[in-house]
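Supplementary Text 2. Reproducibility record for the structural model of the 128-residue chain.

All settings were left at their defaults, and a single model was retained for analysis rather than an ensemble. We include the record here because the model underlies the residue-level annotations in Supplementary Table 4.
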Amino acid sequence: MSAPQISDSELELMKIIWSAGGAALYAQIMEALAEEGRSWQKNTVITLLSRLVDKGFLTVRKLGRRNEYAAAVSEAEYQAAQTQVLVNKLYAGSAMGLVAALIQQEAISPGDYEELKRFWEEERNGHG
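Retained model, structure tokens:
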């Protein structure tokens, strides 16, 4: 999946929609922004949402006079695509380079490593 890049602001809106179970009414999105202490202008939010629709990240449907925005891309799909972009950009396509860097920076603990090994074995044995 080579989805177009989205801005940090657009990603914030996607995170709200993903955490709402993949679909949210415009009013719910505004409410979530307010709860996060974001006082974005109505026009700004509408512009960002329509950009996400144009880029294929969201679909929109009318429920009476209200708009419901639904994620066309799951959070896991987006994370996988962004991880691939990162690996290609910084590590010449070598995921090993990324993992080695995480281990060197102690971003992966020995406990994490054991858990990853278990995950790896389960995936390879088709139990994932």
